[in-house]
Amino acid sequence: MKSKNLLFWSLPVFVANVLIIFYAFNNLQISSALEFQTIYSARIAFAYFLIAYGIGIIYKIFKVSFFRFLRSERRYIGLGFCLAHTIHLISLVYYLIFIDFFPGWFLIIFGGLGYILMYVMAVTSHDRIVEKLGLPLWKKIHSFGINYLAIIFAYVYLIRVLSKEMIMVSSLFLLLIVSLMILRVGKNFLAKKEIQEAT
């Protein structure tokens, strides 16, 4: 693992969140500032997730050098997502405590499992861990984890669309994640079909 690559993708997360916090707490009331930080920290994390989740299939469709570069950096982008989503978690918990709101056990368990899987993927991103686990098991862990997170994002934005909460942005984000999910499922289906035809 290259520390400079990790720094390259992690630094923008820190800078963006610092700027968001600076703007929010200098221009908004504290409850609105906390909500603002929660929303935009989630969007930073989602942007990183979209790249990590979709760059493989996007590069397969569009053989562009920039996409090849992003694909080669997918591990570090994924770790950047982990950092961004952790900052979002801290922001969310602090906001919910401040407004004294309990989201319900379903969302806590459903979302909490997503965070556990995210941290498992982060911990197992090191080459030595991959060697110890073996590539097939490592692929299963990461495939399950990243697809579970995709389902969470899709669910969250679907709920927001149905409740007409920031409907334009929520609809766009839902369209993006669902489109990538469909493309990935299609890619896996075609790959299995090619293997069956070869045998």
Describe the structure.
The chain has 199 residues and is mainly α. The chain is built from 8 helices and no strands. The chain has one domain. Helix 1 runs antiparallel to helix 2, helix 5 packs antiparallel against helix 7 and helix 7 packs antiparallel against helix 8. The protein is globular and about 50 Å long. It starts with a helix and ends with a helix.
Task: Name the features.
199 residues; mainly alpha; 8 helices
Topology readout:
Elements: H1 3-27, H2 30-61, H3 65-72, H4 74-99, H5 105-123, H6 127-133, H7 135-162, H8 167-198
Helix pairs in contact: 1-2, 1-4, 2-3, 2-4, 2-8, 4-5, 5-7, 7-8
Gist of the model:
This protein has 199 residues and is an all-alpha fold. The chain has helices at residues 3-27, 30-61, 65-72, 74-99, 105-123, 127-133, 135-162, 167-198. The protein is globular and about 50 Å long.
Poorly predicted segments: none
Beginning-to-end CA distance, first to last residue: 37 Å
The helicity comes to over 70%
Written as H for each helix and E for each strand, in order along the chain, the element string is HHHHHHHH
Q: How many domains make up the 3D coordinates?
A: 1
Radius of gyration, in Å, reads 18 Å
| Relative strand content | under 5%
How many DSSP helices? 8
Largest sheet: none
Number of strands: 0
Which structural category do the helix and sheet elements fall into? mainly alpha
